[in-house]
């Protein structure tokens, strides 16, 4: 049965149609927010997938170019691989939804969001987030929802709920918060050094909006929700778990797990698993649960020791950071490099500078973002965790980590007017044992400074973890979590920023939300740790950006010309500008506003190109001294080229002080001579003279 529901959200109507389209999906919500339209569906397989020990959830965010009246580029003229923006949006939807499904659910689930129309005043990301929550909540798929999500911006210190695309362009905050009825379940933020207390205020303002949305969703579920279906539970038999404890006492598991060396711990667990497999080889029913039983045993051991004994696997104190080191210039000939090491996590970031013409073009649904001047990319090879598998290009995790570091560093980058370069940083993971994304922020900050990029301030990142007990007051927040604490813990709370404020947050959790007390403690602990990393480690490796770019980096001279003269510089079919480029070996970028960037490695060639452009774009004035090349000789005089496409004539009477009968008596093609501009003649033409050049200018 078709039903429609409407609520006011940030001053605009949010309408949800149920039973109107896609009725064969387990759940479907046809979402309208202003003129933005998104179809959100939730589907699940009838049976669990065999041979897996995880929940197989897929979240898709499909950007249809017709939604903004565009035809896709390329030869195929149809949408292909998901864009980075679509992947990042899928991850933002996935993170709050995943913890609300049963942990032992093994049926394949797909949450699909198809963007069909985009209203610039109503962001489709918000609509898709809410659509996924509604479609899943009304479906028969087991789900402990609903959850709701809100975006928050800030302009001139005032918060804006669900800002428009235009408002996002000038906002000092880009915050997305997801909540359940009682707690915050996901945070993603980028900010211009927002103070911690202001960030907390923003988070809980968004949380209040979410609670109102959840009331709206509850009404939809009450009228349209299906009964949740039963499923095959996947649980380790209690008898097996008891038997495992008899073979491997708790003290032995503690000794196996609690070591500061990841490889040693993994070898200990392999030995225990092998022993248990040999012990229970005759019990086929138990054999399929051995690996999971060992995993659960490790998890319980680690969580108990942290929560009750305040003992961490590597022996650190609860608020202690792993050993740190930082160094720069470890890779020769690149434009900038730095390495940051935190325990067994090690990242090397390399910076490359290029002309603005090499900025990344962005073809998507956002009409305000068409290019990216700064690009951060993150790579995670298998050797970094001691594994072997072929490289198939960056996955969603790599793209997400790269985007997080990019978001953290954008607020401190110099404006293009001060530093007219395209900038690319690539973080290579040499070794991983937790928090590589935050290490990449630290390494990238130092690499940029080493490359001579005049960033406003260095940025550092750190992650906090969480282990919870039986109630909301029974928990412990851990500073600088390593891999094991991430796997077995309840939270990965990443915060990046400068001494003065937060530039990025990303929060992942495995439980049904966090209380305000936990969030405030996590933000306070990350600030304390960030200050330590900046002061005691990074600033001792490099205190400030180098005063100029390195030896091997391209140099850029930027000048401003009259926009009406751009055509003169370019010339017919690009002839003039290409001649300058061929003769000097530089690269030239010209913006529509007349900003010209000349890029090269030889200063003499760059100065020559700049001089040519200035001559081309400057009107000749009386008394101006110029140097030109004889390019044509006529009976009445000679034509000189002062710069590509810029010529003038010297009359035969103005070539020599004495009378000459033929121009060729004095000049030949290719001669380089100096002339003085005499102004306009009676017919309004500019005239030049060789004989009247002042003696001191010759």
Automatic annotation (TrEMBL):
Keyword set, alphabetical order: Cytoplasm, Magnesium, Metal-binding, Nucleotidyltransferase, RNA-binding, Transferase
EC numbers for this chain: 2.7.7.8
One annotated GO biological process: RNA processing
CDD domains found in the cross-reference section: KH-I_PNPase (cd02393), RNase_PH_PNPase_1 (cd11363), RNase_PH_PNPase_2 (cd11364), S1_PNPase (cd04472)
Domain S1 motif: 623-691
GO molecular function, one term: 3'-5'-RNA exonuclease activity
UniProt cofactor(s): Mg(2+)
Subcellular localization(s) per the UniProt record: Cytoplasm
Any single GO CC term annotated in Swiss-Prot or TrEMBL for this entry: cytosol
Enzyme class: transferase
Record InterPro entries: ExoRNase_PH_dom1, ExoRNase_PH_dom2, ExoRNase_PH_dom2_sf, KH_dom, KH_dom_type_1, KH_dom_type_1_sf, NA-bd_OB-fold, PNPase
Binding annotation for Mg(2+): 486, 492
Catalyzed reactions per annotation: RNA(n+1) + phosphate = RNA(n) + a ribonucleoside 5'-diphosphate
Role summary: Involved in mRNA degradation. Catalyzes the phosphorolysis of single-stranded polyribonucleotides processively in the 3'- to 5'-direction.
Family: Belongs to the polyribonucleotide nucleotidyltransferase family.
Record protein name field: Polyribonucleotide nucleotidyltransferase
Organismal lineage: Bacteria, Bacillati, Bacillota, Clostridia, Lachnospirales
